[in-house]
Design goal:
Elements lengths: L1 H17 L13 H18 L10 H10 L8 E2 L1 H16 L8 H22 L3 E2 L14 H9 L14 H7 L4 H12 L3
Organism: Zapornia atra (Henderson crake)
GO molecular function: peptidyl-prolyl cis-trans isomerase activity; protein tyrosine phosphatase activator activity
Family: Belongs to the PTPA-type PPIase family.
């Protein structure tokens, strides 16, 4: 199931490449996202059905709703922590119906959820998505919340990395591929200025 979920996310990533941004005057919210989203809307049940066993096929329509809700809003062309929560609910549904197991928890976070983050960051950059509720979500990042919690768990009792290092550009650049939290910090530095 982990490999199938990563393959599902790889498909979403490929669709971004196949749906380039359109030339438009607006600074935010490239309308090509709506084309990309329409493809997901049409294919979501098939994508989910490829992940779950055939005897659970009746669950695909309901589980697919959470997948569609996890990528952003196609009307507003925005993305935020509520969409991220929908992906967590998507994963929770897969746990509840027995596709994912407790033994999968590390892979769920550090393979599947991490791949989800990569695809969402690509969506955000490619289609210049607004942060949903962008008056500030009272967190470090306008787009994400969970990877800061799960990512910080990787750093518990780390012999060298401490919170004071998270603003050190050199430390972040050298360690971001190994630590989800630092990957989040790097993304913030890429999309924010000042």
């Amino acid at each position: 199931p982990i490999e199938k979920l990563v393959a599902l996310l790889n498909t979403l990533d490929r669709w971004i490449d196949e749906t380039p941004p359109v030339d438009q005057p607006s600074r935010f919210g490239n309308k090509a996202f709506r084309t990309w989203y329409a493809k997901l809307d049409q294919e979501a049940e098939k994508l989910v059905a490829a992940v779950i066993p055939k005897h659970l096929a009746d669950a695909a329509p309901e589980v697919a709703v959470y997948l569609k809700e996890s990528v952003g809003n196609s009307t507003r062309i925005d993305y935020g922590t509520g969409h991220e929560a929908a992906f967590a609910a998507f994963l929770c549904c897969l746990c509840k119906i027995g596709v994912l197991r407790v033994d999968d928890q590390m892979a769920i976070v550090f393979k599947v959820f991490n791949r989800y983050l990569e695809v969402m960051r690509k969506l955000q950059k490619t289609y210049r998505m607004e942060p949903a509720g962008s008056q500030g979500v009272w967190g470090l990042d306008d787009f994400q919340f969970l990877p800061f919690i799960w990512g910080s768990s990787q750093l518990i009792d780390h012999p060298n990395l401490e919170p004071r290092h998270f603003v050190d550009e050199k430390v972040v650049n050298e360690n971001h591929k190994d630590f989800m939290f630092l990957e989040c910090i790097l993304f913030i530095t890429e999309v924010r200025t000042g």
